[in-house]
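Chapter summary example.
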Amino acid sequence: MLTGRLLLGSGNGSVIIVRNRVTAFWFKGKELALAFSLTVSFARLGSALNFFFTQQFESHYGIQWTLWGGTILCVLGLLAANVVSVLDVVGMKQLGLDGAIKEESKKVRVQDVQHLPLHYWLLVFTVMFFYNGVFPFVANASKFIQDKYDGFDQKTAAYIVGAVYDCALVLSAPVGILIDYIGMRGVLAFFSALLTLPVFALLAFTDVPPLVSTLWLGVTYSFAAASTWPSIPLVVPQATLGTAMGLIGSVQMIGVGLCNLIVGTILGTKSGEAKIPLWRWQQMMIFMLANIIACVATSVALNIVDKKQGGTLNRTHKRSPEAQRSQILKEDDQKQAQIPLLPLMDKPQMAEPQSLTLSPCLLLTNSAPGTQHVIHQPDDPILSCNPTSFSRSST
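The structure predicted for these 395 residues follows.
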């Protein structure tokens, strides 16, 4: 069992890293938050289906066929990964980027990790502390609901816990669209952590129905995931993006694993059937609360650093078609400005101005004194130029 879980964890972690890397590469500067949110939505769809159907499937067909069902799902995931890999390679070749990416990636060294910006490290700890408060809670929430609240069996408790992922499934895409248009990633990460604080206090010290808390946590989790993960490609170089994604995934999983060990020590029982005293559950909720408080602190530091360094995270990076066209034209103009002047034959006897229609390039010529060239561009004022003056006049 332990070996199987280790293999599953290593494979799942690698898939998440590659998935995030591919998503960031193809959607940077576009609908980046939406793309990440959709990947979160489908991941949470799998989690929700697991909460709803796995126990029923096991009760009807037994544990052996349930495990075989999981194997079939892994095979389908392998086929999908192969398709994505082919599309990624073909797409980079069509854009002519495969050689450049490989060349830049060769320059990355392990020592370069220490040069990753402060933005990035604050994002790492913001993500880690938030997930430290969410994942261990979700893993133990079904048992907590059965122990604290009367009238909840294991199936009903699992449905209530699944509401966390149900909210993420429904809200992730709209939240991603919103973030693409308004930006404010750092601010939303801060408010997501801040508004998560009451969840664990309600669960530990009040009799508010647990569904209220799980729905609340699902909303804040949706905003946190949609604001933090798409921020990483904005603060690290393209060539080190895979390394950055892998590192943040490793730190997150290490943090969640250590928190699970601490939670197990706090609850102090090896039997899933024994009822755990309420005071132990309260200690666990206080531990979850401490992680979210740490997340609030790191998100505040993240916003302060971001403001001092130009506000990268809190401005929108999705450009409208007009803005993208303007950017392309600006880049073309910069390239054209580097073209050297081409000499043409002097024609001092010309009585009429020589008219040239050039598109998209302008060629300014060296000519004899007194010769004037009028260069017309479509939809643009006439540029009148001679060797001693350069002026722009209206048509």
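To summarize the output: The chain has eleven helices and four strands.
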